[in-house]
Amino acid sequence: xxxxxIHIGLDDTDSPKQGCTTHIAALLVEKLLKLGAQFIDYPxxxxxxxxxxxxxxxxxxxxxxIKCNENIFDKIKETVIATVEEHADFxxxxxDPGIVFFKRxxxxxxxxxxxxxxxxxxxxxxxxxxxxxRFKAEALGFKGGRGIIGGLAAIGEPLKGDHTFEIIAYRSxxxxxxxxxxxxxxxxxxxxxxxxxxxxxxxxxxxxxLITPRGPDPILLGIRGESPEIVxxxxxxxxxxxxxxxxxxxxxNHGTDAHLKxxxxxxxxxPYHPIVARGTVASNPRIIPGRHVILSIxxxxxxxxxxxxxxxxxxRKVASKLxxxxxxEIYGGVRCPSQNTSLTVNLEKLRLLKLAPEIxxxxxxxxxxxxxxxxxxxxxxxxxxxxxxxxxxxxxxAIKIKREVKKGLYITSPxxxxxxxxxxxxxxxxxxxAQFGKLIDEWHFx
Length: 446
What we know:
Layout: E1 3-11, H1 21-35, E2 38-39, E3 44-47, E4 60-69, H2 73-87, E5 98-102, H3 109-120, H4 125-134, E6 138-141, H5 147-156, E7 164-171, H6 184-194, E8 198-199, E9 219-225, H7 228-237, E10 244-252, E11 261-262, E12 274-288, E13 292-298, E14 303-308, H8 314-320, E15 327-335, E16 344-354, E17 358-362, E18 374-375, E19 382-383, E20 390-391, E21 397-401, E22 408-411, E23 444-445
Helix pairs in contact: 1-2, 3-5, 6-7
């Protein structure tokens, strides 16, 4: 009997209080293998647009791509549904789980476009339902069923281009909600040994460990890198100080900038969209309470505000040193205007393309004795305190000072980088195409 290829999409099962869709996927890896399914790819962890207001905690959707005999498909469906029903947080108001089953070897272009729009913009249930019907996919939604959108998007993103890998280890249930226990010194050793092929293990400014989340979810740690082999090697170097229930290697769009979409003019900037745009700094940066930096950029079409928040670290410092006339490229998510704020791009990156001259105006020196002159009042000229000379007709002198910033790319500090933000270390490591083939031995436990 020929094997049937099936793509299983999952989304929106977790809440800020508990749960994790990747954990459900990890449980399903073990269960589906026991049923006789064969995985044709690592579980795909697809991060969707991080700016949508109804997102889950990390806005990550999952796809399991398998082959199986047709006679076990019903059992696989029952297992997936039962696992979601057991582990999703149905009590949380904003959790609307969805499951999609798609039986095809190739992903249609229409589904790939839907996934791209879900990563870079906004999609709706109406479009998802049309695609489900057109391609005869099966879907099950719980409560509002919004997770169907993410599940279908995860199926539609086969990660053929740039991608990375993440190994995620999970905690024993009795430790949920407590502080994660790992040997921090082992993380430092691992980071040095696997650089530059793993990324965002530590924050260099604060020394904070970044592989452990802080919420009540089941994840103990996650290590991201360029290949399944390197993330597994890195995991083997880290020393957990609590039991590990299971672990799985995922293939993902983490660290790829997959969410960012270029707009040609600033009047095309729309709320909730992640964008790349260019403009000229139109107002000197100002610091607001919380040490956040706000500035404006403009082009011939529009003017928008940009915000570099305090946790962005070095990016905030650079933003504070921009001056009117600097030409920049901005990267970030667009925040919807409110009663007190205008449309604002929350900066993830900033590329300084052209520096404007920074001019300061100083009192001139005395032509007679060389001492710096004192002003006699607005429009009244200057006088010298040393030789008592007066110069009513001379003005201040324009001095061009050396800028404290240079042209180049500036990225928010690792501690505040979003899942999708491409870090410095990945520039030049982008993958042009995926190498589909045999999975490495022992890519999951159990």
